[in-house]
Amino acid sequence: MSPTSAGPIVEVSGLYKSYGGRTVVDGVSFTVEEGEIFGVLGPNGAGKTTTVECVEGLRTPDAGRVRVAGLDPVAEHDRVTRVLGVQLQQSELQAKLTVREALELYASFAPHPADWRPLAERLGLDSRLGTRFAKLSGGQKQRLFIALALIGDPRVVVLDELTTGLDPRARRDTWQLIEDVRASGVTVLLVTHFMEEAQRLCDRIAVIDKGRLAALDTPQGLIRRSAGATVLSFTPSAPLDEDALAALPGLASVTHKDGRLTLSGTDETVDAVLTLLARRRVTAHQLRVTDATLDDAFLDLTETSTP
Amino acid sequence: MSSAPTPTTPARRAGTLVHPGVLRTEIRLFRREPGALFWIVCFPALLLAILGSIPSFREHDEALGGLRLVDTYVPVTVLLGMILGGLQAMPQVLTGYRERGILRRMSTTPVRPAALLLAHMVVFAGAALVSALLALLLGRLAFGVRLPAQGFGYALALLLAVAAALALGSLVSALTPTSRIAGAVGSAVLFPMMFCAGLWVPVQSMPDLLARIVGWTPFGAAAQALNGAAAGHWPGWSHLGVLAAWTVLLTAGAARWFRWE
Ligand SMILES: Nc1ncnc2c1ncn2[C@@H]1O[C@H](COP(=O)(O)OP(=O)(O)OP(=O)(O)O)[C@@H](O)[C@H]1O
Ligand SMILES: [Mg+2]
Question: Domain named ABC transmembrane type-2: which ranges (chain B) (predicted)?
Fold first, then answer.
């Protein structure tokens, strides 16, 4: 194996995959640098799982090039499994296998396994070691699969819906775990539906919509890029006329509700609103200016209709 | 059921097909299946015990060449465990492993999912052999049934029969998408197979033509090979050949149609 220190550790370029004549991944390209936490966001059915399972070598692309640490995940599957840890969106274990047995077994698969005990402890599995898989709760199963993804001490870990089904505390503990894992040099490819998770963890995010790459940027970059990056809301002391509002530069949206006005746009919009208020001698009660969230950017970037 | 921690030893080689950890796990899991344990390991011997306790089964019969009915039922019960396991237990487990994504999860590790299938087959074969041994021993100790006179030929026929049962079970698993369907198909094939092995009428008591037809089926051939070896002759290449041919054919079918997901 020649671990390429130069160049991206995960490379996806021009990836296509279709099922029964329907294209579900349509020319997706991105690269992940070593030590990065890279997020994949997108509506249900966008093709996220299909994309990352091509990276894992579980699905064979119809076209395009995929490399993990310089290896082809399909043709060199065996070698890729040695550098890649995987948590699938959906999988199971033998019903009567206990947590301890599963951890020991999967540790025994890896060339240089991590110690499973501290991992189990951090994921709150230490009190469930003797429990059979079928008797675990949904969140406990999820934690076990996170542990199994990390147990081989991989260079790259792919997590498909990392914290789905976890309670808020477990979710935060898991984020901390992923940050620690990354601090030790592991590259993380993360599929998620939680914007808070993406915003906190990811260095860069690919937004996939209907099989296409809709955007690729840092979380802040995505927010800035969305049409209504800044949100301004206040209750005006006197009504403002629609024409004046519509003429505001950079305006993305206006909503009235119970006498309260909410505008989204750019910093320029905010300046213009303040000027307008001063000129009309209107007072803005309970004025709030907030950055748009990743949620807003996401909704903006992905179309409303899902396949 | 042991919960003793086993040391986490790294897998020895790349893309391993035989993995000691997987095998150990499958042995443990098998021991947690009381149903499979009973039907594969205990039931055949139990059946022999019940049949042997019927007085008429212990009377010598000229029509059977001086054998007693209990003598003729030993090979039948020797085959029964592997038939039950191969058609009722194994295909459901293997199909379930695929259906529930367990093979898929395993294929993301350096150990190939085939190692899991293989380990399960080894465990199943071991259980079938234990079951056969139990039936032989019970026949010998409780009813004075002589141990096979042609021991080597008997062992050879037995191993071939286990291989055929493995192949048949794998084919059922390969052809069925869910473990429920695997169970249904297994049951449908189970009864003719048990009939051919002589569960209702031992092959020695079958009419000539029927015995000859049954001799072309895997377990009919196995029963006749075992009978021959029990009586002290070499099992006969035709029967062994039929068994081997079935094994090759069924294995090829299973390999051809098996899907990993
Ligand atoms: N094996 C398959 N056979 C047929 N169609 C498939 C298969 N796998 C995925 N698809 C289709 O491809 C599309 C993308 O699926 P995929 O699982 O990649 O979506 P996703 O982005 O992961 O969605 P989610 O957020 O719901 O997990 C879906 O429309 C799905 O129906
Ligand atoms: Mg998905």
Answer: 35-261
